[in-house]
Specification:
The chain is mostly helical and 423 residues long. Helix content is 55%, strand content 3%. It contains 14 helices and four strands. The strands form two sheets. A two-stranded antiparallel ribbon has the order 1-2. Strands 3-4 form a two-stranded antiparallel ribbon. The chain is globular. The chain starts with 27 loop residues before the first helix and ends in a 6-residue tail after the last helix.
Length: 423
C-alpha cells in the first residue's frame, strides 16, 4: 500500500506578527474580497483533506487491518485541522450557519448508529432513536414511519436519520459520525485513553461487533456525503458563489459587522462557553468536542488559528501557499491603532494559552478530557486559562467594534453568563 503523507499538524504562522498585511489597501470591498478568498481556500483545504480521508476509509473497508485503521484515523485528524479554522465564518454568515450542521453537528447519540456499551443505557426521554442502531437493523422506525434501511446510502443518512424527529443529537452525517465509526466510544471517562474500536469491526471474514459489512457501508456513505457537503460550501465561496455574493452585496458597515460577529461569537458563546467552560464546570468528558478521538485540543487550537487568519487576512494553506490581502486588522490600523494593539495582544495571548493546552495533550502528558477532570488542578488551570483568554479576546473585539462605530450581537452562553444554573 502506498504511504500517504497526511498533514496531521499544520504550521500555524498566522500569528499577530503577520500585521505586515496591514500595509495593503484596506477598503471594505477589498477586506470582503480577502475574507471570501480565505473562506474559499479554507473550505478547499477541508475538501482536499477529506478526499485523503475517503481514500483511507476505502482502504480500511477493503482491507481492515490495524495499520489501515490507524491511517484512516490520522487522515481524519488531518481533515479536522483546516475545517476547524473555518468556524470563525459562522454566526455572521447565514449561509454557513444553515449549512454547518450537516458536517459538524455535535453532540452525537452513538446508539443511533451502532452498538454501544451497556453503560450507555437503553433509552432517553429526549431521544426516541437513542438506541436505534441502524447498522444492526435493516428496518427502522422513525416516529410513525418504518424505513427500509437495507441499503445504507447517503440518502438514508441525510434524509431519514440526521436530526431525525428534530432531535439535534441524532447525528448521522459529518465529521463526528465518521469519528465515532473510526474510534468507537471512549469509555475511559477522565482517565487516559481514547476510543478503541478494533479493525475487525469492519472485517466481514472475522467480524467483531456484528454487521461488519453494514458498518463499512455506513462509514463509506458518511465520508462520501462529507465530501458532497464540502463541495457545496466550496462552491458557495467561489468567485460567483452565493455566500461570497451575499457578503459583497451588504452595506459596508454590515460587511464589517458580519466578519466581527463571527469572530466574537465563536470566541465567546460557542468556544469559551459551550465547548470549553461547560465541560470544565461539569468535569464531563461527554462535553468534549472530539470526544471519541481525544482530538479536542486540536479542534480548539485550530478554531483560534482560523480566527487569527480571518482577522489578519493571512491564511497558510495545507500545501504551503498563502492567501492574503486587506483585512480587519489593516482597517483597525487606520481607524484605531489603540484598539488594534489591544486586540492583537489578546489574540496572541489566547493562542499562547491554546498552545500550552495543545502541547500538553500532544506530548501524551494529559489528554483534554483528563484536563477537565474533577480534582485535576493543573489541567483545570490550563483549560480555564484558555477560557479566560477567549473571554478577554471577545472584550477586545467589542472595543474594536466600538472604535469602528459598528454594532454587533455576540452569542452568549449560560456557562459564562449564568454558571450557577449549570447542573
Amino acid at each position: 500500500m502506498k504511504t500517504k503523507n497526511f498533514v496531521a499538524t499544520m504550521a500555524i504562522t498566522a500569528s499577530i506578527a503577520l500585521s505586515t498585511t496591514v500595509a495593503q489597501a484596506s477598503t471594505v470591498t477589498s477586506i470582503a474580497e480577502t475574507y471570501s478568498n480565505i473562506a474559499h481556500a479554507m473550505y478547499e483545504d477541508s475538501l482536499i483533506t477529506a478526499a485523503d480521508l475517503k481514500t483511507a476509509v476505502g482502504e480500511l473497508v477493503a482491507k481492515p487491518t490495524k495499520t489501515n485503521l490507524a491511517t484512516a484515523r490520522k487522515a481524519w485528524v488531518a481533515a479536522r485541522a483546516p475545517y476547524q479554522q473555518t468556524e470563525g465564518l459562522r454566526f455572521g454568515n447565514a449561509i454557513v450557519d444553515d449549512w454547518e450542521g450537516k458536517v459538524n453537528a455535535w453532540p452525537l447519540d452513538e446508539g443511533l448508529i451502532d452498538y454501544v456499551d451497556a453503560s450507555y443505557g437503553k433509552s432517553s426521554d429526549e431521544n426516541p432513536a437513542y438506541t436505534l442502531n441502524v447498522i444492526a437493523n435493516t428496518k427502522i422506525r422513525i416516529g410513525p414511519n418504518v424505513i427500509d434501511a437495507t441499503n445504507i446510502t447517503k440518502e438514508l443518512l441525510s434524509g431519514s436519520l440526521h436530526e431525525a424527529q428534530e432531535v439535534e443529537s441524532n447525528v448521522a452525517t459529518g465529521y463526528h459520525a465518521i469519528e465515532f465509526l473510526l474510534w468507537g466510544q471512549d469509555l475511559n471517562g477522565t482517565e487516559a485513553g481514547a476510543g478503541d474500536r478494533p479493525a475487525s469491526d469492519f472485517d466481514v471474514n472475522n467480524c467483531t461487533g456484528g454487521n461488519c459489512e453494514r458498518r463499512g457501508a455506513f462509514l463509506v456513505a458518511a465520508t462520501d456525503l462529507l465530501i458532497d457537503d464540502l463541495k457545496e460550501i466550496v462552491e458557495a465561496w467561489a468567485p460567483r458563489g452565493a455566500a461570497r455574493a451575499d457578503l459583497a452585496e451588504k452595506p459596508e458597515n454590515d460587511i464589517l459587522s458580519t466578519i466581527l460577529t463571527g469572530l466574537g461569537s465563536l470566541s465567546y458563546g460557542e468556544l469559551a462557553g459551550e465547548r470549553i467552560k461547560l465541560g470544565l464546570i461539569l468535569h464531563d468528558p461527554e462535553e468534549e468536542h472530539d470526544c471519541f478521538s481525544d482530538n479536542t485540543h486540536n479542534s480548539h487550537y485550530y478554531n483560534q488559528a482560523g480566527m487569527i487568519a480571518l482577522y489578519n487576512g493571512f491564511y497558510k494553506r495545507v500545501n504551503g501557499a498563502v492567501v492574503k490581502g486587506a483585512s480587519i486588522a489593516g482597517l483597525a490600523q487606520k481607524k484605531s491603532k489603540k484598539a488594534k494593539a489591544v486586540l492583537d495582544t489578546l489574540m496572541s495571548n489566547t493562542l499562547t494559552k491554546m498552545q500550552v493546552m495543545k502541547d500538553t495533550a500532544d506530548s501524551g502528558k494529559m489528554a483534554y478530557d483528563q484536563m477537565i477532570g474533577e480534582g485535576e488542578e493543573a489541567g483545570n488551570k490550563i483549560i480555564q486559562d484558555v477560557v479566560d483568554g477567549l473571554v478577554a479576546q471577545t472584550r477586545g473585539i467589542e472595543k474594536l467594534v466600538a472604535a469602528l462605530n459598528l454594532k454587533i450581537s455576540i452569542e452568549g452562553s449560560d456557562s459564562l453568563d449564568s454558571p450557577s444554573t449549570i447542573q
